[in-house]
User: Which sequence fits this backbone?
């Protein structure tokens, strides 16, 4: 049985990753400090370690005991706003935590395949032309973007130095079931809850800011494909290539919910936020045949349907 270690496995994306790999008969171990994840998200058949990736001793023991064949690294400080206000925390989690994880893995006799969840929008900054591919200059405009890029460089370095199979995925704005509505990156879950509760919406960028929204199952599919292949620190975008305005997301939710927001407030972008981004995933498509299957309208419908069982 293949042993898969998922950092951040109690989070939104991580829990879907765990479910999928459990269904494929992997032995899955989750390490998560539950700062933004929830233990209820973790499938019962997973092993769970409540801990932090910045705890060097803990990581070394977990890795030494479990000896993973595959590591999917999702644990991160993912708030742009928080990274601006507390860059040392951001760097400690995203850079030092990733480095400590790599250090614990390099000593294994058989080093695991390593999949890293990086950022698309925050890495490229505000490009002049979209969609952007992996050859576009990286010009982060937030500490979060800089820390995720720094981790990418370490991961690619360890691939070369210690014969790791590693791959860095720069993700678009991932959404879907179990995404929290109280974190800044989950605009679809945030808007949905506020519309249902008849609360006002805040549209940053005056509603014109564009993002590339990708459904969580499409990301998990890409991870599953990557887990079967060997890489040498390559970087791939995972997005739809479609840039959607925030106000268009709101309109789609209104149509799906059959309910208007009580009020809409249009505000300027917050510090560290970019204006518009979408990602070309042609490189990964050419290598593997992967392409996103769920468009935004259907994805929002699936997300809203998932709330009905709550």
Assistant:
């Amino acid at each position: 049985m293949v042993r898969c270690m998922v950092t951040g496995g109690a989070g939104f994306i991580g829990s879907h990753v765990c479910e999928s790999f459990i269904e494929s008969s992997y032995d899955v171990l989750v390490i998560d400090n539950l700062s933004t994840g929830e233990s209820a998200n973790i499938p019962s058949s997973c092993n769970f370690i409540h801990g932090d990736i910045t705890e060097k001793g803990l990581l070394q023991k977990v890795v030494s005991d479990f000896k993973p064949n595959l590591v999917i690294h999702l644990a991160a400080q993912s708030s742009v706003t928080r990274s601006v206000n507390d860059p040392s925390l951001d760097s400690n989690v995203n850079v030092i935590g990733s480095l400590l994880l790599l250090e614990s893995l390099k000593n294994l006799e058989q080093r695991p395949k390593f999949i890293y969840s990086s950022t698309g929008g925050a890495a490229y900054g505000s490009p002049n032309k979209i969609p952007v591919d992996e050859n576009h200059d990286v010009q982060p405009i937030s500490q979060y973007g800089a820390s995720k890029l720094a981790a990418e460089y370490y991961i690619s370095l360890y691939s070369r130095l210690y014969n790791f199979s590693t791959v860095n995925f720069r993700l678009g704005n991932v959404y879907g079931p179990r995404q929290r509505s109280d974190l800044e990156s989950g605009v679809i879950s945030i808007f949905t809850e506020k519309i249902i509760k008849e609360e006002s919406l805040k549209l940053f960028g005056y509603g014109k800011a564009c993002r590339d929204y990708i459904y969580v199952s499409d990301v998990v599919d890409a991870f599953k494909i990557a887990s079967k292949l060997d890489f040498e620190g390559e970087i791939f975008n995972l997005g739809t290539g479609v840039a959607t305005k925030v106000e268009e997301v709101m309109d789609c939710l209104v149509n799906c919910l059959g309910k208007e927001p009580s009020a809409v407030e249009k505000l300027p972008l917050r510090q560290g936020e970019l204006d518009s981004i979408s990602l070309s995933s042609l490189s990964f498509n050419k290598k593997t045949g992967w392409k996103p299957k769920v468009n935004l309208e259907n994805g929002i419908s699936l997300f809203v349907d998932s709330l009905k069982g709550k």
The chain has a mean pLDDT of 94.
